[in-house]
Amino acid sequence: MLAAPHSRDELSALLERAEAEDRVVRAFGAGHSFTDTALTSGILVDTTKLNRVLDVDLANARVRVEGGARLHELNDTLYGLGLAFPNLGDIDVQSIAGATATATHGTGGKLQNLSAALHSVELMLADGSVVELDERTDPDGWRAARVNVGALGIVTAVTLQLVPAFVLEGVERPIPFDEVLAGLDDYVDSNDHFEFYMFAHSSTAMTKRNNRVDLHEQPRGKLTEWFADVVLNNYAFDVLTRLCRVQPKFIPPVQRFAASAGSYRRQVERSYRVFASPRLFRFTEMEYAVPREHAAEVIREIKEIGRHYDTPMPTEVRFVAPDDAFLSPVHNRESCYVAVHQVAGMEWRGYFGACEEVFNRYHGRPHWGKRHSQSAETLPALYPEWDRFLEVRRRLDPKGRFDNRYTNHIFGPIG
């Protein structure tokens, strides 16, 4: 059963019905996750219509919004209030509840993932009641709810701790891969946000540096923006990947062309317009957070693995500061995120499996919204506060109303 409630009362009535009929419940926002986290044989709740701004506290730079609000909708609204997220990922289609539940992140050696911006979380429980979780009233519940994989209840609202709106200067530049790795710490530490893409068959990496500047925004022309972000980065690349799917022998030259085709590009814009860009072609992805001190070794090994598998897509490398959410992949450690991709329609299991072996050797933790093969047997060793999360899960959802096959696989059944 699919339901799309317009209000908290309608959602509460749905949960009361699920309780009466003994049906499980899962919720989804944008459906952006690559995992089976939202699948259910019970009631599937579409939170799209639960997207309102509920309260604005400019004095404390806090805004309360419903859980279904999409990031791209929020960004414009927040900018109008003079506020912004301190950091964002490169995709902005997710709901705020889904993005934080899976620990969505951007990049920045001193900046945390998106869930760290949650000052409080409002959860609707299986009986239709509502609890408000924050650091003062329920510290364990709050640290569990910030990254919850949908296993505690339905996030009906969150209060966001934001920062004053700011302008970023984004600079994209191809740099030799060996040069990037040789100066990796300096690149990360000397920029507010640093990331790069590497190609298995190219000696060039495409770097991106975003830094705060005291300048007025300089919007690109609509035609320029469309040509760069849509035509070149999406349609043209999609054509090339389709060619590689039919003729894998073209993968090395296509990768070398993609790595060298990019040139110096500078953008001075509102932060969220620099962070995010459209992704209009289909692919699948695996991403792990590894300890930052092992970043260079992991990156080299992943690049070498890519030479032995057919994938035209690059590997993305980003950096995130520690936080204290129980299930955050960067829990209490500085981390390097490494993301590998495969084009839709091309085999990904062998490639991802080989990469996952590397991530496992370096005690990597999986991104909760992307593919991985971890389970309730392997995950506890990766998360120091794993048992405390399970205690909160048993407390807030003792009957397992919000379970599905995926949550039972990664957490084990309640009971």
What does this entry look like structurally?
This protein has 415 residues and is α+β, with helices and mostly antiparallel strands. It folds into two domains: 2-164 and 384-399, Uridine Diphospho-n-acetylenolpyruvylglucosamine Reductase, domain 3; 167-366, Vanillyl-alcohol Oxidase, Chain A, domain 3 (3-Layer(aba) Sandwich), CATH 3.40.462. It has 13 helices and 18 strands. The protein has helices spanning 8-21, 71-80, 96-101, 139-145, 177-182, 184-189, 222-246, 251-261, 271-275, 295-306, 349-361, 386-396, 405-411; strands at 2-3, 25-28, 43-46, 53-57, 62-66, 83-84, 118-124, 130-134, 154-161, 163-164, 167-176, 193-198, 204-213, 265-270, 283-291, 315-320, 335-343, 365-366. The chain has an eight-stranded antiparallel β-sheet with strand order 14-11-13-12-16-17-15-18, with helices on both faces. Strand 4 and strand 5 form a beta hairpin. Helix 4 (139-145) packs across helix 12 (386-396) and helix 10 packs antiparallel against helix 11. The longest helix has 25 residues, at 222-246. The radius of gyration is 21 Å and the shape is globular. The two termini are 26 Å apart.
The appropriate CATH architecture of the largest domain is 3-Layer(aba) Sandwich
**Span from first to last CA?**
26 Å
Mean pLDDT: 93
Determine the oligomeric state from the structure. single chain
Number of helices: 13
Point out poorly predicted stretches.
none
C-alpha-based Rg, rounded: 21 Å
CATH topology of the largest domain: Vanillyl-alcohol Oxidase, Chain A, domain 3
